[in-house]
What does this fold into?
Amino acid sequence: MKKICFIFLFLSLNIFAQEIALLKYNGGGDWYANPTSLPNLIQFCNININTTLKLKPATVEPGSLSLFTYPFVHLTGHGNVVFNDSEVKNLQNYLNSGGFLHIDDNYGLDQYIRKEIKKLFPNTALVEIPAAHAIFQQPYSFPNGLPKIHEHDGKRPQAFGIFVKNRLVLLYTYECDLGDGWENAEVNNDPLSVREKALKMGANIIHYIFNN
It folds into this structure.
C-alpha cells in the first residue's frame, strides 16, 4: 500500500509540471558544483527536443518527500557522499516508483559514490550500459556510447546503470564529466563542439526519462 501511495504522489505531481532537481547530499562533498550546468541543459532541451522544463532547477535533499515530485534528479561533485538509513530508504522508494537518478562524477567522486550506490541496491549489480542502449540512440546518435568530455585520468568514459525490472533507474557517468560540458563556455573553456556533444548526451538522458 505504501509503495502505491509513493507511485501516486510521483505521478500526480508531475502531471502539472516538469521540473528537475539537483541532489543536496551530506558527507562534505560539493553537491553544488557546476552551478550553470543544469540551467544550460534545461534551456538546450526546451529549445531542441521540445521539453517544457522549468528554467531553474530545484534543490532537493535525499530524505525529503519532495524528491517524488521530480522525474530526474542529478548528483555531482568531487568529494564524499553519505546517505543515512532514512535517506537510503527514501531514495529506494523514489527509484522503485518511477524516479531517475543521474550521478555524474565531477572527478574524485568515484571512490565514495560506489559504496552509496551499493547501499541503495545491495542485491543489484552496477553494470556498464552498452552503446546499443536506447539512451545513446535518440534523439542524438552516440554509436560509441558515452562521449568523452574531460580527460580526468585519461580512462575511457563509461556509463554504468542500475536496472529494476528492465528499467534504467540510476545512471552513473564516469570518466566523462557531462556536467562540466553543460557549464557556461567561459567556465572550462571547452570548444563549442565539446559543449554541444555534452548537451546532446544530456538531452538523450532527459528524452529517455520522459519516453520510457
Remarks:
- Confidence is low (pLDDT under 50) at residues 1-16.
- The longest strand covers residues 167-174.
- The first helix runs from residue 2 to 15.
- The chain is about 35% helix and 15% strand.
